[in-house]
């Protein structure tokens, strides 16, 4: 049997990058997948088409995770289409690397609203759908949570906050059969990291030189670990922060 057979999974920010890879891997393991996006309908539709062309089940649902009404609608759509929810992956996130002098209130709030508040809002609505049977939450954090880089003060703070939420909720969910874990990727080649100028930069080369496994990550590297954490193979893992970074962010 496939690892996620009969599971319903919501992946936020799945129109591209790491989220898209997680959506495809989950569907390949039998999950019915909700591909959430903020503005890239074309990207989300492409992910859904690739999944359905391969015999899987998926729908695309627009929704800004930082807006409560959007999140309520996203979960309603999930329930209407698939009858419930088993796995939430909080992947939607933005990174705005800025020197301290250039940080604006807008950049601060945008990053915290999407990366932190967005995750809280989706968790609040998802646990209603988990109900008595429980469920599984994966927060896509970052190695930058433990090892912040220069100009990444605000972004790193959002991910440290997200990891604190993971640990606090793992305890708060005691007795409710809800697992919650963080995955902390190293630098991964995505549309976002390419647009931010990391991929192909001197910073990437320096990073790779410090990485024991000697390369930048690919979205599939993260997605395969997300499948494991979402599956019953990880049934006794909760409240963990798992670095998936070629060794550069190991503890
Ligand atoms: P990406 O390529 O930029 O994709 C970001 C995704 O998030 C898109 O699907 C985007 O949707 C969605 N999104 C953005 N704001 C949203 C919002 N308000 N509501 C709903 N969806 C929203 O990003 P990525 O590089 O794959 O990163 C994904 C996650 O991994 C992020 O949380 C990031 O912090 C984390 N991460 C990435 C790296 C890396 O090197 N790439 C390393 C460590 C951690 P639209 O396309 O519709 O805007």
Characterise the protein shown here.
This is Glucose 1-dehydrogenase. Belongs to the short-chain dehydrogenases/reductases (SDR) family. Keywords: Oxidoreductase. This protein is α/β, with parallel strands linked by helices. The chain has one domain (8-244): 3-Layer(aba) Sandwich (Rossmann fold). It has helices at 17-28, 41-53, 68-82, 105-130, 153-172, 191-195, 202-209, 219-230, and strands spanning 8-11, 32-37, 57-62, 87-90, 135-140, 178-185, 241-244. Strand 2 (32-37), helix 2 (41-53) and strand 3 (57-62) form a beta-alpha-beta unit. Helix 1 (17-28) packs parallel to helix 2 and helix 4 (105-130) packs parallel to helix 5 (153-172). The mean pLDDT is 97. The structure holds NADP nicotinamide-adenine-dinucleotide phosphate. NADP nicotinamide-adenine-dinucleotide phosphate binds next to helix 1, strand 2, helix 4 and helix 6.
